[in-house]
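2024-03-11 09:14:02 DEBUG pipeline.ingest accepted 1 chain
2024-03-11 09:14:02 DEBUG pipeline.ingest length=190
2024-03-11 09:14:03 DEBUG pipeline.predict start
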Amino acid sequence: MKSLKKVLLFFVILSGCSVFAQKVTTQAIDKPAEGKSLVYILKTGAGMLLNFRVYDKDKFLGAIPSGKYLVYECEPGEHLFWATSENRDYVEANLEPNMVYVIDAEGQMGAFIASVNLRPLKPTEFRDKKLFYQVVKNDTKTIYQPSQDDKAENIAKAMEKYQELKSRNSNKIAVLSSDMKFENADKPTK
């Protein structure tokens, strides 16, 4: 009888451990308020000690440090997202209402400090879904709060550079199309 109790106790402990050892594979994400759009801006790659400053055209969204990501609710429609570090990088976006989009502010080795590359993530790409899953799982969410910081000079220079790139039909301006919407941050499977 004692050995039966020991065997039962072993199985109870083993099943309890397996419940705790299960990996999280599904993760809900924030949804926008009715009629709004939501953009997740991740920070990955090089430049761990740098904060990339992110904007929506002439609106300063904030500086994103390593280990954090920004959630920004906005009006649907046309947007120009850009980030700055050693360089400036741009994403033209067309956002639908009630949808969620993801942009990666990826740090890359620059000449003196890390440069930033804004890259819209595609929900159809395994590596993009995996990156979104990992960042939401491991990093800390920051929700956009309006800032009183005067960034007028930086914004003016960035808009001038954007117009120059646009006039040359530069391929340095990425596009986030309305069909690049994410439903969740679940762990992708192949």
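2024-03-11 09:14:41 DEBUG pipeline.report The beta strands are 37-45, 52-56, 59-64, 68-74, 77-84, 88-95, 100-108, 115-120, 140-143, 173-176.
2024-03-11 09:14:41 DEBUG pipeline.predict end
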